[in-house]
């Protein structure tokens, strides 16, 4: 029987729904359609509860002439009508995001494979929880207290400040203990001590960018990409070919990524993008990690999407087989 897939994508992706090779979700959807899966599309606000059951108003997607299309008409389904749900809205992880995750409290996980499980996504912060793996993370502090942050920066001399619930480098600042604007930056980003932030020790090799290490289930991909800082910036901030280069995993990175994959897959977190500098994980992306498929294809001369789909199909087959290797939770 043909498997039914539901993608919960970001609002902006639905608004401009056509194949764009910069967008990971569009690659995934296109590849499932090419393999004759039924693929429906929804966004966060299409999820709802009716009669104590998780429901969704979804749109059918189709493939024609190597492009993907989405019908305007919506049809109501139980979430458990689908064999697999890919939950991949972009941050910020605000109250609307969290409410969408709550809908999945009413989903039977034996009937439907959730990638990534929204309950686990809700409970896992991409910055906060690098501290699940303290041996692999840079020294850091998470607090809203300006005094503690100032002490940290004074001691480390250089640091990176990050908001906890944004993406694409939004709101990320480089801080130097000699900067006369240091307290102003801290007060602005903590909203005068009300909002916690992460402050990480600055790693000097950040000037060469960070490496994206990709994981599906318990498979660590050998293919990875180096994201380079933009001009007049200390971080990767522009999705442009000149800011990428092909790179390789070190043995330490491979071991580190495998440990993280093994731990998080047991929680129902299967799609993971690690951002790595100096063999340290600076962020564990689990909400809607970009897989940089176009860039990896260009730098490695492969069809990375085929390798990804082989992993997905193996996960799906194992989930619905009698001998399951992935965690199934209610």
How is this structure best described in words?
The chain has 330 residues and is of the alpha+beta class. Helices cover 27% and strands 27% of the residues. It starts with a strand and ends in an 11-residue tail after the last helix. Residues 323-330 have low confidence and may be disordered.
N to C succession of SSEs: EHHEEEEEEHEHEHEEHEEEEEHEEHH
> For this entry, what is the oligomeric state of its chains?
single chain
Number of helices: 9
Class from helix and strand fractions: alpha+beta
Keywords:
about 325 residues, alpha+beta, eight-stranded mixed sheet, six-stranded antiparallel sheet, 9 helices, 18 strands, globular, disordered C terminus
Summary of the model, kept short:
With 330 residues, the chain is of the alpha+beta class. The protein contains 9 helices and 18 strands. Strands 1, 2, 3, 4, 5, 6, 7 and 8 form an 8-stranded mixed sheet that branches.
């Amino acid at each position: 029987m043909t498997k039914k897939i539901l993608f919960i994508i970001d609002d902006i992706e639905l608004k401009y729904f056509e194949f764009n090779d910069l967008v990971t979700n569009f690659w995934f959807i296109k590849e499932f359609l090419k393999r004759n899966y039924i693929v429906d599309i929804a966004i966060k606000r299409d999820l709802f509860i009716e009669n104590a059951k998780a429901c969704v108003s979804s749109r059918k997607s189709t493939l024609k002439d190597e492009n993907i299309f989405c019908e305007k008409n919506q049809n109501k389904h139980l979430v458990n009508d689908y064999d697999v749900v890919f939950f991949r809205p972009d941050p910020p992880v605000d109250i609307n995001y969290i409410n969408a995750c709550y809908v999945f409290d009413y989903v039977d996980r034996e009937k439907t494979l959730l990638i990534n499980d929204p309950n686990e996504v809700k409970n896992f912060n991409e910055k906060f929880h690098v501290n699940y793996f303290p041996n692999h993370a840079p020294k850091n502090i998470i607090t809203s207290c300006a005094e503690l942050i100032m002490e940290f920066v004074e001691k480390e001399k250089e640091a990176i400040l990050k908001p906890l619930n944004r993406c694409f480098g939004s709101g990320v600042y480089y801080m130097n203990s000699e900067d006369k604007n240091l307290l102003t930056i801290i007060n602005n980003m903590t909203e005068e001590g009300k909002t916690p932030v992460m402050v990480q020790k600055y790693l000097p090799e950040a000037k060469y960018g960070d490496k994206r290490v990709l994981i599906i289930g318990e498979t660590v991909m050998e293919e990875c990409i180096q994201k380079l800082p933009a001009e007049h910036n200390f971080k990767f901030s522009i999705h442009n070919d000149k800011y990428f280069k092909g790179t390789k995993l070190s043995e330490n990175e491979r071991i580190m990524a495998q440990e993280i994959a093994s731990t998080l897959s047991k929680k129902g977190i299967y799609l993971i993008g690690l951002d790595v500098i100096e063999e340290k994980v600076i962020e564990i992306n689990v909400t809607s990690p970009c897989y940089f498929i176009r860039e990896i294809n260009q730098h490695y001369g492969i069809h990375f999407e085929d390798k990804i789909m082989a992993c997905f199909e193996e996960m799906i087959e194992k989930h619905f087989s009698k001998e399951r290797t992935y965690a199934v939770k209610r």
